[in-house]
Specification:
The protein is built from 1 helix and 40 strands. By secondary structure, it is mainly beta. The longest helix has 4 residues. The protein is globular.
């Protein structure tokens, strides 16, 4: 969001017209302290996983010259599809979002784990254009957006692909000038088992931005149909040393997730699976291994100018029993080759937190998305930082930034609804974290509340803040939502502090969160300690998203 005002050119004037004073947040701070990130790493010869920590799933990557670009899924968060840039494959920064205008993405009323699935980013050298192909599962289906320069943060309006069904489309530009779309969809005829899917291919007319000819099935079922494999999906095509390689995910996005590879002499196949598949999985490792990384799959490959290959893929870091609040994250590993096939990770090996690079970097890598770091926003600019997201597409501008901080104005929508509540959040990126803010707010009636939220979905979250109860008194309260709200704790604010700003702090350690309040920012009162937060995990709450932490007001 380069210029926040440009997101709503026709609605910006509606901001702050409700007559309500709103809640002003002077700052927001976040810091992570995971033990697995504490070890030494040679920043010129190694990379640290996750490459993008927190809820950044389904990564796709491409390169133009010495510039790398990566995109990840965003589902029903807005803006849609974060875009990252790097010049060394290890140090990344977010440069914006592909869908940052309401005209590109209307998520009103959509389920949180609907919206945008699995983007695939590609660069076409022949017309010097970047393409991003994606599925809006609850609206227009499959579409592309394109740009000459991702750094300008101005992708086109969506171009629909009505003949491309299913999900997970990916574009491949062949060296003869032809282009193709591969994607997941139902198989020809009736599925033979639950989870039976196929990989289809269409030719893509670059000049007309549409499909051409008849589609064909490249893979029906998966690597070994005798085993009834499930959810062959997330296909990517590559041409390497004269062969066409089709790489897909298989097994579903949970603990049986894997990556498999096929090869053909012709772009139309036949595609023969490698006898040593899968080329990436963690499903065969002991469940009780220390600091496990699970659910690995959904990969994409990229080649450096020097000829080295790397893979980005999603995986998870559970704190116990495959429970993870950080969502599905982006990892990266160097690719090796065996018998003419790419191998992301040999069978039986655990995804490492630190991996060796193919060759040293010219200077040490540094990234705000890896390891333990601290992050602060004082909101004193004209635009929100790229890390901030909304729940669904705002239909009016109900926030304001400035020297006083960030002011959120109640918009009549609740965090417990399929709506666009007055909430602005950023991803939880560590198993052990601390997040804090200072809020100035005066509730005027019972139920008014402003403060912080730990949001997984409308039925699974925490709201922690300043509120007024039916007795007319003002409290710092903690509400836990799991298919129904429960007041976990509340602490009355003394009369002499009623109109002062309140500092709020949330800490997390695995599946336990603690909540603190302060009237001076120095002396903290424990509102609730070691509260079970496992309901924020994907395994409990369902869907595909991780926890987003942020600021919220409701009246």
């Amino acid at each position: 969001m380069k210029k926040a005002i440009l997101l709503f050119p026709l609605l910006a004037q509606l901001a702050c017209t409700s007559g309500r004073s709103g809640a002003t947040f002077r700052y927001f701070e976040y810091a992570g302290a995971d033990a697995t990130f504490a070890g030494y790493m040679d920043a010129t010869r190694q990379l640290r996983n996750p490459l993008l920590s927190g809820f950044y799933p389904d990564p796709s990557i491409c390169r133009k010259d010495s510039n790398y670009y990566m995109a990840t899924s965003s589902f029903a968060y807005y803006p849609g599809i974060p875009i990252f840039h790097s010049v060394d494959l290890v140090s990344w920064r977010q440069i914006g979002h592909a869908l940052n205008r309401p005209s590109q993405l209307n998520l009103a009323g959509k389920r949180l784990s609907g919206g945008l699935y699995a983007p695939a980013i590609a660069y076409n050298k022949r017309n010097d254009t970047f393409y991003l192909i994606n599925t809006n599962v609850d609206d227009i289906g499959n579409f592309i957006v394109k740009t000459k320069n991702p750094m300008e943060n101005s992708w086109s309006e969506p171009i629909r692909l009505p003949k491309v069904g299913g999900i997970d489309p990916s574009l491949f530009f062949d060296d003869d000038g032809k282009a193709y779309i591969v994607h997941n969809d139902t198989p020809p005829g009736k599925p033979q088992w639950s989870g039976h899917r196929a990989i289809w291919m269409h030719e893509f007319d670059v000049a007309a931005d549409t499909t051409a000819g008849k589609p064909a099935v490249l893979v029906n079922g998966g690597v070994d149909t005798a085993q009834r494999p499930v959810w062959i999906e997330a296909p990517h095509l590559y041409k390497i040393n004269g062969y066409y390689y089709l790489m897909c995910a298989e097994g579903g996005t949970s603990i049986n997730h894997s990556e498999v590879i096929f090869r053909a002499d012709s772009v139309w196949g036949p595609y023969i699976p490698w006898s040593k598949n899968p080329i990436l999985t963690q499903r065969d490792l002991p469940a009780d291994r220390p600091n496990p990384i699970t659910n690995a799959g959904h990969a994409d490959l990229v080649q450096t100018p020097e000829g080295d290959w790397y893979a980005v893929f999603l995986a998870c870091r559970p704190y116990r029993d495959n429970l993870f609040n950080t969502g599905r994250e982006t990892f990266m590993l160097p690719v090796t080759w065996q018998d003419g096939y790419p191998v992301i990770l040999p069978k039986g090996e655990a995804v490492p937190y630190i991996a060796n690079l193919h060759r040293p970097l010219r200077q040490p890598a540094a990234s705000p998305y890896q390891g333990n770091f601290a992050w602060r926003d004082d909101f004193n600019g004209n635009a929100l930082a790229h890390e901030w997201v909304f729940i669904r597409t705002p239909q009016a501008k109900w926030w304001k930034t400035g020297k006083a901080g960030l002011t959120l104005y109640p918009n009549g929508q609740s965090i417990r609804e399929l709506a666009n509540p007055a909430f602005i959040g950023r991803r939880q990126q560590h198993l052990s974290f601390e997040a804090s803010t200072e809020v100035s707010y005066r509730p005027s009636k019972a139920g008014d509340m402003a403060g912080m939220a730990c949001y997984q979905r409308e039925t699974h979250h925490f709201v922690f803040g300043k509120t007024m109860n039916a007795d007319g008194k003002t409290y710092i309260a903690l509400d836990r939502e799991q298919n129904g709200a429960t007041r976990i704790a509340e602490t009355e604010i003394p009369p002499e502090s009623l109109h002062k700003p309140v500092c709020l702090k949330i800490t997390g350690s695995g599946g336990l969160y603690s909540f603190y309040a302060s009237c001076d920012g120095l002396t903290w009162t424990t509102v609730a300690e070691n509260v079970d937060a496992a309901h924020l995990s994907t395994e409990v709450a369902g869907g595909f998203t991780g926890v987003v932490l942020g600021m919220y007001v409701e009246e």
